[in-house]
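Bumping with the actual sequence this time:
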Amino acid sequence: MNIAQQNAGQITKVGVIGAGRMGQPIIGHLVKAGFDVQVHDLDPNKQAAVEARGARWQPQREALAESCEAILICVGYDRDLRALISQEGMLRHVRPATIVAVLATVHPTTIQEIAVIGAAAGVHVVDATVCRGGRAADAGTLLSFVGGDAAVFERLRPVLASYSTDVLCTGKPGSAQVAKAANNMVMWACLVADHEALALAASHGLDTEALRQALMISTADNDVLKHWGTNEMVWADDDMEIVSAMARERGLSLPQSEVVREVCKELRPRRYQLDKYGKT
């Protein structure tokens, strides 16, 4: 029995807006779990890939909004998200009691604001941020943090479980963004620290791969080290910009995070090139 059958009487029709790096594998896992999946993306060239995964391509976002019981938003910066989920946007077409789950990484107040707008329309807006990156998305082993009402969380859980091995409720809408920000802070700090440690070792003639293997059985072990060379750093600056804004609003000084953000800007074009790290 698949997840959708186990969830009989509840959510069976799932819409996904955004068929990018994370959206594509999530779509595939939803289909395999037995959900009726519709997908919309601004790029029509993604239609073939979506249909190859067994989902239905929906060129009209409004039609998707009208027919789905849960809608996963996998794209968008804060401004885009507000425009998409607004009384003038998608919410006009979403049926009451529909769950709109934001998987994108945005500022917590953005989720809180659109959750209020959604509630006025009878729509449940939650944030359902994902961690562990593209590898986990491909394997269906993501970690999903979820900020929303407990009953809504339980109703949405089977959908999230189709692509996540761990699904954790963090509290009210917006709280999952806080949890994701904390995750990102540690992840990017580890990426920088790993580069510095291995660059230092390389400059002293050590075999850096042998050292990396040793560090993974030491107190220095971290996920970035385990998957060395695979992180593309696409979202590093955006992630750390959100962290910086969150800290400023609370009057909190996070000096290490500010340094990590600046280092990541310089690191991205020459990441994993240890012979170039720390040299002008």
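The tokens above came from a reply further down the thread. The domain at 178-270 is CATH 1.10.1040.10 (N-(1-d-carboxylethyl)-l-norvaline Dehydrogenase; domain 2).
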